[in-house]
Amino acid sequence: MNNYQEILSLEPKAVFKHFTDILSIPHPSKHEEKIAAYLKNFAADHGFEAESDEAGNVIMNIPATAGNEHKARVILQAHMDMVPVAASGIQHDFLRDPIDAFVDNGWIKARGTTLGADDGLGESMILALLEDPKLQHGPLTAIFTVEEEVTMKGANNLKAGYLEGEYLINLDSEEDGTLVVGCAGSCDVSFTFPAERVETEDTAAFNLTLSHFTGGHSGSDIHKGHANAVIMLCRMLSELTDDYEIFIENLEAGQVRNAIPAACNATVRVASQQAGAFKQALTALSLKYTALYQNTDPQGKIEITETKETGNALSLEDSEILLRFIATIPNGVLRLWSEDTQIPETSSNLGLIRSFEDRIEIGCMPRSLKENGLDEAVAALKASGELAGCEVRLSSRHPCWNSPSQNDLIDALQKSYKQVTGKEFKVMAIHAGLECAQFSKAAPRLQLVSLGSTLLAPHSPDERAYIKGVGELYDTLRLTLSSI
What we know:
This protein is an alpha+beta fold. It has twelve helices and 26 strands. The chain has helices spanning 5-8, 13-23, 33-46, 117-130, 153-157, 229-239, 275-292, 316-328, 371-387, 408-421, 436-442, 467-483; strands spanning 49-52, 58-62, 74-79, 101-104, 107-110, 140-145, 167-170, 178-183, 185-194, 197-198, 203-211, 216-217, 247-253, 259-260, 264-271, 301-307, 313-314, 332-337, 340-355, 359-368, 391-398, 401-402, 426-430, 447-450, 455-456, 464-466.
């Protein structure tokens, strides 16, 4: 069993002590109750007022240190849940098993799963600040929300009274040296493709497995050109439909809609007399496609295995419609942001596919830094789905967020960061969702920013946290809370 000794030896020790506690407590989205109990126990141990609201958020009230009662209230905020994604072939029960984390050459990583530094490090940073005996600060509120990664339930249902204060610092960003003042809105777009199943005659079945592609966060990694495993597979099969009658028996991909699928599995059937030629043609296409993504997905692997399994498949017509729908669905970066062309403005990610006897369920998440950009992406997805005969449902729409690039809070953080590192923060927007959008709408007078230390490949088993940035951020926040 991992006792996290390497991580516990890191500085700042208080931050990493809480992070190892969080690593040991299962907390996937919609199952944050154990983390909530941990947080409330922390508050009780330190004599802080703490409560849970109806949504399951935990809110702490921390009085000012002596002589600082006159200062404006600062709200520190992070979310409790993590994205539960395991690598191909890894068995991990996210409801029971701790995260197997380790230190590797300046980074913290996890063996075979997401790490949960998004947002476990944000939570840990807040707890370490709250218990710092040398920190002089004004009145503080600490808010820990639920379901940020899936529904934004915590932020959407947080009562405005908990947001009474002058400043809010969200600790859910993922790049050293950046202050985030804007984020993308998003929407869940769900498709139900009705499936007519038929019994095929004189066919050969193949199991098709794509694995070990890079995947990643559907916001912060969407512009990096990583393969979407299931779209890749459907494009390969679509190329063959002129020469082969392909029946789809099963199609499965993805674990959450806000992650790019790094793997997928399918069972298809072709005429027995064409089996050899089909396998040869698909093998040639697999080499073509893995070569196309060699730089972005170097570990990607495609396996084609003939199987004796029996089962009913989608009709030939439904199979071809489904393949072409997935092969052509709007996906990836749809438009770059005019204010900074290094940042996507609008994108979409096909993140989930599940097969049932009478239907195929497909889940996408479009994002945009502009509300009308999100409208356009949703309209394109809806039209594409309806053309394929799908029932289309829209849910969980989250707003965009844009704040001023200069205010008293940003000035204080810039001064502190310059004192710690000799550098200035870059002020920017990101193509990912943040709860700041909900907080800004509920409390328009708040000065809000989001920041965090560097995380790479969040929402994927390659997620890793840069250790040096954690200490720099902690020292910056200490100075800011003591001065603002």
